[in-house]
Amino acid sequence: MPLRLSPKVLLIDPVRMLPSLLLPLVGVLFVGGFSPRSFLWAALGIAGTVVFAVVRWATFSYQIAGDRLEIKRSLISRSVRTIPLERIRGVDVSTPPMHRLLGLAVLKLDTGASGGSEQEGELDGVTLAEAERLKAVLLRARAQERRQPVTDAPPQPQENERVIMRVPRTWLLYGPLSGAYLLTPFALAGGAIGLAFQWGDQLGFGRDAAWDAGQWLWDHPYLLLIAVVLLVVAMPVVGGVMYAVFNWNFTLRERDGYLVAERGLINRRSVSLESRRVRGYEIADALAERWAGVVRVWAIVTGLGDSQARGQLLPDVPRAVAHQVTGAAIGPFNAELRKHPPVARNRRLFRAIAPWAALAALALTAALLTAATAWWVLAVVALILAGIGVPLGLDRYKSLGHGYDGIRLSVRSGSLRRSQAVFERRAVVGWRIRQTWFQRRAGVMTLVAGVGAGEGGYSAVDVSETQAVAFPAEVTPDWLAPFVRP
């Protein structure tokens, strides 16, 4: 029979609609001069929001009917979304703060039909028990590929569960190394400044006052410098806190043919990935992470939407642990990466040094002609950056590589963010060779392995012409046999 969301969600919907109503409500109060009539109209607006939430809840239902999940909406026009259980490739259960207080959860289904970050089905406001029941029923039905109809009966307890990795809380200290959360203090400061200028009049101190405060701070550069230094000092602290909030108690499990990743402190999230659709993994690290010997890991999964968020297998962990976990959960890569030709090193050195060297030459010329101090400063800075470009270019070349161990392929590139993709040979659906004008002059090219998973293709950058032909012939010899003369 059709089921509804928990009535408790009616306490959440009006609160979520409040930000979009805040400006109209404030406008009504100001236009009405805060008269009783203006408060009455504001109250009617809030009441209308509550009525809308109730009607939307009453006209929404879902049920598992046979071998499909049906989601029905009939607020204005009636719509029925049917999701075959065999198409469900992942289930995402999350508990945002307000949901957690009320014992509710958000359940999202990923079928790969959208091809992007949007899930095809979402149940926002089921109880935690119902979310776990639905998750078990849907994943069990998908894993066993049942031919008979699936009922709403509670699933039998499953024993096939193995904990692959529990990330120790002490490893959360690696969080600021990734750099993803380091700009949080500046983002908060920018948001506060934007709020002051946009809502200054409504907040009571006026937009002009906010502008005058900014002008006064600009006229006192030492205070501005102190503020910037404080924000920089706060970067690792705030970034580490944000990282811990999102990755608290990160646990990776294998359960009934699925890889299940759970994480989060305020919003606890559980993501299930069907193991048989996992084609490989991607290991990434930034410069600071590389110096500390830690990496992050994502799964390469066919038909997975929002793979950067939903496909995460591990947060920052030691490299040896990452290889151990990926080897146990997906499979190891047992081969050395092959080096790219020396001309690839020259190209990286040129791109890392030449722009700054050219800027330094222009600045020196201007400094000699004008004797302006600013040009001398710019020339020195450009020369320093050109010098830094030498180790950066060499590191970028050192990071290049590709390989094949008979089962899996691997390609690696990047320096500021180095990424190594490892994927199965059966995932390769085609090859593509790209060559820019500069690559053609240098005698190198980019070989792209088309993969029906993850990003859709992974590139071996600046390989030689011999490697561009030999590597596909080694991996997929049958594909090239018709084009090779005996």
From TrEMBL:
Residues 57-136, 408-468 form the YdbS-like PH domain. The keyword Nucleotide-binding does not apply. The chain crosses the membrane at residues 15-33, 39-58, 171-197, 222-246, 349-369, 375-394. Keywords: Membrane, Transmembrane, Transmembrane helix. InterPro entries: UCP026631 (IPR014529), YdbS-like_PH (IPR005182). It comes from the Bacteria. This is Putative membrane protein. It comes from Nonomuraea endophytica. The lineage of its organism: Bacteria, Bacillati, Actinomycetota, Actinomycetes, Streptosporangiales.
